[in-house]
Amino acid sequence: MLAFIIGSGTVLSLIIVVLAFLLRGSPIDQAAVAKNGTDIMRYTVDNLPQVLIDGVTLGFVYATIALGYTMVYGVLEFINFAHSEIFAIGAFVGVEFLIALNNAGVLAGASVLASYGWMVVAILAAMAASGLVAVTVERIAYRPLRNAPRLVPLISAIGVSFFLQDAIRLVESLTTGEFHRIIPSFGNFDDRIPLFNAMIGVFPIKIDMGVKSLWVIVAAVLMLLALNYIVNLTKLGKAIRSVAQNQPVSSLMGINVNQIISLTFFIGGSLGGAAGVLYALKFTRIDPYVGFFPGLKAFTAAVVGGIGNLTGALLGGIVLGMLETFAGAYLSLFTMGAAGAEYKDILAFAILILVLIFRPSGLLGEQVGQKA
Amino acid sequence: MKKTLTFFHTFQTLMTTGKTPYIFTSVYLVLTTLLVYIFPQQQFFFLLFLVSAWFIYSLPMSRNFKLGLGIVVALFIVPVLGVRNIFYFEVIFQICIFAALALGLNIVVGFTGLLNLGYVAFYAVGAYLWAFFGSQQAYLLHVIPGTAPANTPFLLPPDAFYLFIPLGMIAAAVVGVLLGLPVLRVRGDYLAIVTLGFGEVIRVLANNLDKPVNLTNGPQGITPIQRPTLPQPVMDGINAMLYPLIGRYATLDEFYNMFFYVIALVIIIVIIAVIIRLDDSKIGRAWAAIREDELAAAAMGINVVNYKLLAFAVGAACAGTMGVLLAASRTFISPESFSFMQSIGVLSMVILGGLGSIPGVILGAAVVVVLNLQILQGLSLWLSSLRQSGGVIPVINFAWSSLSNQLDPAQYQRMIFGLILILMMIYRQEGLIPAKRRMRGLEQPVIEDENATPQGDKPEANHGAA
Q1: What does the mean pLDDT of chain A come to?
Q2: Which of B80, B432, B449, B465 has the fewest CB atoms within 10 Å distance of its CB?
Q3: Do B68 and B155 sit in the same domain of this protein?
Q4: What residue of B is the nearest CA neighbor of A170?
């Protein structure tokens, strides 16, 4: 896993540096000098550490969301389109909880440790809320359609997704008067930890990392480890894997299939909720429609990694987060501003289409059947 | 309970026999027309008037009578009422536009069973095609958006619009085929996500193609877009007819409303005719076969990819044509009109009306448009008037003025679309007016059919035999 992150990071960095090296002296270089005051090579290298850290952070957020898609797909072979709103609900519950604490004056003087503790509580609350919503949605909108043709639950899921977006908006605007929320700033979350500061050759290299990014990565890794433990090493996980393989036979073996499916939705949903809080922590501002793009990209990540495969979702998330951050940071530079950072959203879809055409099973997935 | 049912039954037999439907429809039509004519601001009467179209369609009357009544309503009553209250023209025009879009999407989703979530992308292709060639944009390629010099010439004469209706159709169909070629090999539910992505790609492109070359003017959108010139003699003729009815001459904008309404009507009729013919042909049966079972269809010698591409192209062509019409009628377009929400809106029309059912999707389009434009906005207005009235709900002692300003039903279209999709999928997958050719894929297992009465009509059997 670690090897994969380092490997993909290195490959991307090398590509970028080589590109920058090749473009020295070109009109693109001159444009960069005019804009940034440094030549293209220098600019690229200076930004690289930050871009890598951001990429990994974003990658872990995507990976955590992607796990929700991939778990449900693994068990039901169904794209839970509403997962992006489960994610948004988690973000809102966590942020509202922190805002309430902040208004009560709890967060203002809290020590670093206490503020970390409150953050953990916020994440747990979001996980519980998102998990419960996911289970409810499954019960109401998916379970009656379980034996219907594939498109039917998918359309229902799209409906749930749209309904939940406006439901969040309705609740938020009725209770708070607005539907954009900003996570309060507290503790030392805005600080940066210096990691490296020295001269390499003639280049002074300074690398630091935000506490937020560290939090995102650590929290995501802990959750992934917990999930790995549950799915692979407990009896419950065995039941989930069994239901994923064959529902009728599982129920003959004494497994309560409906219960296990609900539980899968709960686990996937709570991971999505936690990702929501982490996303809010990293990007500060949230609104009811915040889930759409992260949801789509996480789905892409799940497909890239091989949908239904937990490790695959993680790898896909990292790849996508890295690529997107690199595109956001360098696309504008290398095309002289012609293709701005806005195109990073398109990148995910381009990757999705390419993967689906050339390797529909993804990086780690098993071969999927032809029948739709 | 039983008594009401018997009453309902008698009522139904009465309504479907002899001369009653003729008399009822005519009286209803005349009454509602008069009501709307006398009270042009009362939206409720307009809703009653719209229902008359349903009676004309559904009650058992002779074909010629229905046709005649339809022509009178479409070409005479609607324009007069539209001039009485311009908002009604907007409602009917939007119903026409979305009905055409829903008919096109119905080919892809309903006939062929491919879920396309990026359908408005094709609509955008048509709209931007005429927006680019029918405005000054071609001379502004190197101008930063918002700084266009005054009196830039237009690229083409306004009447090129007529040429661009077929051109928009072709362009959208080509884009549909180009998208379909790589994508249609993908399995059903992935296809949904990929087309969704494509829709977003088109929107992002429209938003960002103001640099390096200013093709779309970015988020500001393109304006002004030309409208074709209207012939003066025809306008004079219509005015001579309208004057005694409304007591004034129609303005130029009202003439344009009428003009685009008629064009939209003509296009819809052409689309319906083409779709009915296609559905009844070898192509339509191939589509249905692909929808029911792709592997079996391929085994029967159907070229699955080609027929899917054809469905994509025909569906896209409908949207492209309407896109050209939209650009001309609005004289302004921006990327906002082509968001994912619009795609889902069209999808909810198709689902509501009935997958694969032509009258169904038109009904779906009408219901959703009326819901959005009239009912939700009416609710919003009603709530805001309640807020200002200073009234109080008696029992719970709730002052209307303390109701949050955020509670604005017109802003909650997504919720409506979502509810339509969920409820229809759970309770009535075949839609309000189920398709004649039954969708086996959307029904209970076939075993139940064996218990059905033998004389019950099974339309699919006819098609199977053909």
Answers
A1: 86
A2: B465
A3: no
A4: B407
- Chain A residues whose CB is inside 8 A of the B417 CB are 159, 162
Residue B458 lies in a domain: no
Which sign, positive or negative, has the C-alpha torsion B202, B207, B213, B217? positive
* DSSP states along B142-179: TS-TT-PPTTPPPSS-TTHHHHHHHHHHHHHHHHHHHH
Are B372 and B228 within one domain? yes
Interface test with A, best of B346, B380, B414 (most A CBs within 10 A): B414
B145 found inside a domain: yes
Separation in Å, CA of B47 to nearest CA in chain A: 26
Quote the minimal CA–CA distance from A216 to chain B in Å. 27
The closest of A168, A146, A15 to A84, measured between CA atoms, is: A168
Rg (CA), chain B: 24
Burial (CB count within 10 angstroms: exposed 0-12, middle 13-18, buried 19+), residue A252: exposed
Q: Using the 3D structure, point to which of B84, B111, B132 is the last residue of a domain.
A: B84
The phi and psi torsions of A193 (rounded to 5 degrees) equal -100, 120
How far, in whole angstroms, is CA B295 from its chain's centroid?
A: 32
What's the total number of domains in chain B?
A: 2
Report the alpha-carbon distance of residue B427 to residue B414 in Å, rounded: 20
Q: Are residues B17 and B115 in the same domain?
A: no
Q: Looking at the structure, do residues B417 and B440 belong to the same domain, yes or no?
A: yes
Q: Considering the entire predicted model, what is its pTM? A: 0.89
Q: In chain B, which residues have their Cβ closer than 8 Å to the Cβ of A352?
A: 193-194, 197
* Final residue in a domain of this structure, among B24, B55, B84: B84
Residues spanned by the domain of B238: 89-447
Question: Taking CB atoms and an 8 Å limit, are B415 and A163 in contact across chains?
Answer: yes
In a domain, residue B464? The reply is no
Q: Say whether A126 sits in a helix, a strand or coil.
A: helix
Contacts of B411 in chain A (CB under 8 A): 169
Residue of B nearest to A173 (CA): B406
By CA distance, what is A354's nearest residue in B?
A: B182
B63 and B95 belong to one structural domain: no
> Which residue in chain B has the smallest CA separation from A368?
B187
Chain B interface test: which of A155, A163, A304, A332 (most B C-beta within 10 Å):
A155
Average pLDDT by stretches of 10, chain B with 466 residues: 74 80 90 90 89 89 90 89 88 95 95 92 95 89 78 87 95 93 81 89 88 84 90 88 83 90 94 93 93 91 93 95 94 91 94 93 95 88 83 76 76 91 92 74 47 43 38
* Nearest beta carbon to residue B186 from set A149, A167, A356: A356
Check CB contact under 8 Å for A170 and B415: yes
Q: What is the ipTM of this complex?
A: 0.89
**Domains along chain A with CATH numbers:** 2-358 (1.10.3470)
A159 → chain B, closest CA residue: B418
Cα A301 to its chain centre, rounded Å, is 9
pLDDT by residue (tens digit) across A289-334?
999 999 999 999 998 888 888 888 888 999 899 989 988 888 877 7
Q: Are residues B119 and B14 in the same domain?
A: no
Note whether residue B396 is domain-resident. yes
Contact A346 B182 (CB under 8 A): no
- A355 burial type by CB count under 10 A (0-12 exposed, 13-18 middle, 19+ buried): buried
